[in-house]
Amino acid sequence: MNQTLFPTPSGTMGPALPRYEGRAKVTGDARYPSDVRLARTAHAYLHTSRIGRGTIEAFDLSAARAVPGVIEILTNETIGGEIRQMPAIYQGGYLADSAQPLGSADVAHWGQPIAMVVAETYEAAREAANRIGVTYRPHAALAADMDAAEASEQALDPISFGVGDFAAAYEAAPVRVDARYSTPAQHQNPMELFATQCAWEGDRLTVHEPSQNLNNIRFGLAEQLGLDAEKIRVVSPYVGGAFGAKGFLTQRTALVALAARRLGRPVKLVATREQGFTVSGYRAETRHHVQLAADRDGRLTALRHEGWELTSRADSVAMGAVSMTARLYACPNIIGRVNAVGADRSTPGFMRAPGEMSYGFAMETALDELAHALAMDPVELRRVNDTPVEPVGGLPYTSRSLMQCFDAAAGAFGWHERTQAPGSMRDGDWLVGWGCASAFYPAQAGNSAARVRLSADGRVHVSSAGHELGQGMYTMMAQVAAEELGVPVDRVTVSLGDTDLPPAVVAGGSSSTASVAPAIMAACDAIRRRLGIEDAPPASVMPAMEASGMGVIEEFAEARAHGQPPESIQGLYRGMALPTGGAHLPSRVQFALGAQFVEIRVHARTHEIRVPRAVGAFAAGRIINPRTAHSQLVGGMIWGIGSALHEHSEIDTRNAGYVNANLADYLLPVNADVVDVQAILVPEEDRLVNRAGVKGVGEIGVVGVAAAISNALFHATGRRLRDLPIRLEHIMST
Ligand code: MOS
């Protein structure tokens, strides 16, 4: 074990155990949903639209049908009425978007699935899909992005709020910042592609699909196909990366299920990397207007943050993280506003820290601009505005360790050696810049259930239909049960990723551990009650088990998350288990917080940008496993580097298609771009947030990195770049 790979546990942290499923993964034993081999499988391939908005006038399927091995071609003309249109999650439904799969001849966006070929082999299906002829009638007016004349803007009432008198305070202030920022469309690009396999046995359907939300697929598909959800099983023991892209049911699943039913044999679809850009949601482009005002000591007197987010025509989606950026610092006069701008694009969705990344970039860069205007150290600016109470509703934070994070990261980074003037830290031909920013993410949880079985020989089995996305779910579940029952962790086995197991929250919103750990704890409580040792320490469980003469005790338990009403527990059994928390609770706010520090180097002649080191420190309540948590945070910080300097889904405004929908042209940080990334775990105890004391670490690592980089770039060059991604050509042209 290399101790430098993860921090030594401290405070209330649990042991840094190795990953439960690590051996299965590195030896290839772990079978992902597309690895499952079913007898007589037929292979599906999507054909996606090549226009942005319009109508299909005619298909020519003759050449496709002539390809040897083709069995079936589904289009809006051949599909029949077997798949119902159902609402998207934004209207209370299950689907990632509200389109009906192959529902009509209308094309709403580039890359929309308009046909699916099924053939004996993948190659035959692909060949036939490529031979499908389509005559389109494109709509004359196309809005590819927010700048298009045809784009439509709407303010969102639920995300519009204020306190105090912003306008008067802003006008009266001696120091002000007024700036606009933007972030581009980005795609999650998980390594594992969007795969679905469906197999029927009589009237029972099994779906093998990588998912962050198994029961969402089960119940959504039941509605679409008019089936009893009890007849559908969804299996996904491993997910090869998701990052929000596998959170909700997409159009492909019902098509594969329908084809498998028609053919009477299993059907397998693996969408291509390019198709992955439009078959699920993505991080939509955003724009921001931030106005800050402060007194000469740096105390904020007025703060206004307005955001615009691109969405589809069909679904009004906005992440609206102004609900957090307006609540991070003490300030008496605040306005927050969010607008959705509809365009002819696929419906956006969730991508790791969906709104926090982009809104955080805007707010945390604006704060750096304010620090510069005040000639104040940016860390000290955060310190004078630190607050135990959020400023909009006056609610207390359950815990807040923002400045502890700043101090820990600043110390490790060596921030005290920074000289304040832009351009003052030049090293030969390299302009050196140091920047920092806050990281934040709502601490959320949803309802979950779990089952725990204790055997007289000391073995424990724990199960819940949670999701292993690579974040460490198996390991966490084993650790919590071992700790509660006082058995060694190597005596614990875990089942997850199967709708036959007790239902769990969506693996989204960094909420899995905060939601499922309390359910496991409740099941262990029930075991202790059965043994009549309710309040005894874990070490007395096994002696009591032996004394009881019982062979096995198995208990099922539910845990309802704080802020969820009693009736919400029913939703758990209908695939409706969504997390809440953050700024959306009536009596308190609960955020995980952190601090990001970055050094960048800009070459004085070529403008090449390098990030030689990044240091983050994070306080997220109890850390169950410092090894997996650390790995999540480092991964998030690397995403942050990508979000600032590399990632950009580039749009061809003529057809609203993505021109770089592949991993050669969609730039991501690689090893040479990521030299030294350090994530510090700041011990934090939060007894309120949930029974496990866990805030979650899945997404906070990405938040604030882009601002720290843009702030460092200003420090290096004196140039303030407010539009992501920041590339060398942008430095040349300013
Ligand atoms: Mo995460 S973007 O909430 O799956």
Automatic annotation (TrEMBL):
Principal EC category: oxidoreductase
The Aldehyde oxidase/xanthine dehydrogenase a/b hammerhead domain extends over: 27-140
> Which keywords does this chain's UniProt record carry?
Molybdenum, Oxidoreductase
The family database entries (Pfam families) matched by this protein are listed as:
Ald_Xan_dh_C, MoCoBD_1, MoCoBD_2
- Identify the EC number(s): 1.17.1.4
InterPro entries named in the record = Ald_Oxase/Xan_DH_a/b, Ald_Oxase/Xan_DH_a/b_sf, Ald_Oxase/xanthine_DH-like, AldOxase/xan_DH_MoCoBD1, AldOxase/xan_DH_MoCoBD2, AldOxase/xan_DH_Mopterin-bd_sf
State whether keyword Oxidoreductase applies: yes
The organism is Aurantimonas endophytica
Give the highest taxon in the source lineage.
Answer: Bacteria
Q: Which Gene3D superfamilies does the entry mention? A: Aldehyde oxidase/xanthine dehydrogenase, a/b hammerhead, Aldehyde oxidase/xanthine dehydrogenase, molybdopterin binding domain
- PANTHER family with a match to the protein in the record: ALDEHYDE OXIDASE 1-RELATED, XANTHINE DEHYDROGENASE
The identity of this protein, by name, is: Xanthine dehydrogenase YagR molybdenum-binding subunit
